[in-house]
Amino acid sequence: MAELGDELGIESYYRSFPPGTTLYYAGAPADELFLIRSGRVRLVKRARGVERTTGLFGAGELVGEEALLPGAHRSATAEAIEPVTALVIESDTFRALTRKRPDVGEGAMQQLVRRLRRAEEQIENALLPDPTIRVLNTLLHEVDDAERAPLRLSPLELSTRTGLDLDQVKAVIGQLRERGYLEVGDQTITIDDPAALRQLHDLLALKEEVRHGLSCR
What we know:
By secondary structure, the chain is α+β, with helices and mostly antiparallel strands. The protein has two domains: 4-123, Jelly Rolls (Sandwich); 128-215, Arc Repressor Mutant, subunit A, CATH 1.10.10. The chain is built from seven helices and ten strands. Helix 2 crosses helix 3, helix 4 packs antiparallel against helix 7 (194-215) and helix 5 packs across helix 6 (166-178).
């Protein structure tokens, strides 16, 4: 979908956002969608004075899909964490576009389904007390979904998806690398033997179940 603006000849609808720029605030009326051409955007929610990143999005992804619902408001704040260029489309324009180009609507729907699966993954991780199991769970989800290797996962994205802070994520990844379960590159993670990683996950999960069972007696 990143080439959509080029195909339609609407270069004037592209906008640039320096790092740290807020694209929109939580609670504001939702009337525009942002199709990212380059850079990354994070979604942030604040609860009880604590700010947490709830999503990271990059080139080819839609942000601000609440605008598809009439009268909707933003559920989170969107912030550029890198120089971002995005196609900014009003919701009425996007609806008209999907009527002319059904493939655009299908692409948006696929993205929303992926986000629903990520939300389910985050809920699942929130129920897992062990940081290592959370990281393994997310890595295995990514292995199942990935179309190619290596996986492109930054520490910040892992932190977002696992609900752990960055130091915890880096510590777990460091341990897994030292034990030979994965290799770490520049914003990439390579897993040569997913079966071994899954076996480790299942073993740790079993130990956690046994420990929890004993503590309940």
